[in-house]
Amino acid sequence: MAGEPKAKVIPLHGNSSRSAAARRNAARAQSARRHPSVLSDPASAEEFAAVVREIDERRGNGFGASPTDEQTPNELAARIAAVAEFIRTRMTGDYTVDEFGFDAHLNEAIFLPLLRVLFNNWFRVEVSGIENLPESGAALVVANHAGVLPFDGLMASVAVHDHHPAHRNLRLLAADLVFDLPGVGQAARKAGHTMACTADAHRLLAAGELTAVFPEGYKGLGKHFKDRYKLQRFGRGGFVSAALRTKAPIVPCSIVGSEEIYPMIADVKLLARLLGLPYFPVTPLFPLAGPVGMVPLPSKWHIQFGEPIETADYDESAAEDPMITFELTDQVRETIQQTLYQLLANRRNTFLG
User: Fold this and answer.
1) 222 Cβ contact partners less than 8 Å away, ≥ 6 residues apart
2) Over 139-166, what HEC string results?
3) Do residues 263 and 283 lie in contact, with contact meaning Cβ atoms separated by under 8 Å?
4) pTM of the model
C-alpha cells in the first residue's frame, strides 16, 4: 500500500556460508595445483621420493617404529623359510648318507637344535681345550661315562660341533642296546653314531673321522652316586688298538656334571634282569615321582678336552702288543681321573658351577 514502509526480507542463509564455500573451493583448487599428480610438468624424482618418505614415516610411526631404525629380519619368517628349505631338500633327495647311515642334513636341522636346548639352557655346558682336537683328520676322544642315561655323549657331540672352529661332527661309539631299541637305534645311526666295536672304530678312524668312545661302558653309566667321579675299569684296551692301527691321536676328555643328573641310590637287579636292562636305577625322584623323575636335574657341566697323546711314532706291531696297549690305556685313564679332580676342586656348586 502507498505510504507504508516496505517489509525487510531477512535471508535464511547469510553471505558467510557462501564466503566459506568460496574459500573451500579456492583452497581445493590451490591444493590441486600444488599436488604432483596434476602438475602440468612431470614431477621430479626428488618430489616423488619425498612423498614416499612421508608415507613410510607415517606408516612406521603408526606401528610405533622409528623410520630410522634398521629393519631386522622377522624371526618367524626365517624359521618358516628354514623349515621350507628342509622339506624341499628332503623331498628332492639333495642330501647324502654315509655307509654308517649318518645323515648330516638331518643331524644339522633336527637333532643338534634339540640337543642345544639342553646344552645351553639346562646344563649350561662350559667347554675348554677344544683347540686340542685336530682341524681335520682322525682322532679318538676318550671320555668318562656317567649319569644313568648317556647324555654325556650327546653333550660332547654338541660341544665339538658348536665350539670347534671347523664345526666337526663327533661320531660316538655306543652300546649294542642303543641300536636294539625301536626308533632310538635308527635315530642314533642317522646322527652319525655306531656300535662300540673295534671294527667300527677302526673304519671310522681310517676314514679320518673324529670318533668318541666311553671305555667304562655300563659300569660307569650305572654306578651308584656314592662312587661318582671314580673311574671304573677301562676294559681290555680295544680303543687303543684301533688308534694305534690308524695312527690317530688319543684325546682324553673329562666331563663334570653328568654324575648329578640322576643320582642313583640303588639298583633293582631283579627288575633289570626281567626287563633285559644292565641296571634298573632308583633315584630320589624315580620311580616314585613317575614321569617327572625322568627329567634330569639341571647340574652345571664342564667338558674339557686334554692334550692329545700321539700314536704316530709306534710301529705297526704295537697294536698287538698287550703291554703297550695296557700302558696307553692306563695313561689315558689316569689323565682323565686327575683332570676330573681338578675340575671338581674348582667347582663351587653342583648346580651353579
Assistant:
1) 148, 264, 267, 278, 279, 281
2) EEEEECCCCCCCHHHHHHHHHHHHHCCC
3) yes
4) 0.77
Cis peptide before 322 (omega within 30 of 0): no
Which of the residues in the chain have pLDDT under 70?
1-73
For residue 224 the three cell numbers come to: 651308584
Look up residue 34 and give its three cell numbers.
Answer: 600444488
Q: Which alpha helices (H) appear in 2-111, and where do they start and end? A: 15-34, 45-62, 75-92, 104-106
Nearest residue to 154 (alpha-carbon basis) of 107, 206, 85, 102: 107
* Helix, strand, coil abundance in the chain, percent, nearest 5: 50, 10, 40
CA angle, residues 189, 219, 293, in degrees to nearest 5: 75
Q: What backbone phi and psi angles, to 5 degrees, belong to 28?
A: -65, -40
For 214-266, the pLDDT digits (tens) are 999 999 999 999 999 999 999 888 899 999 999 999 999 999 999 999 999 99
Give the CB-side neighbour count of residue 304, counting CA atoms within 13 A: 16
DSSP symbols for 76-101: HHHHHHHHHHHHHHHHHT---B-TT-
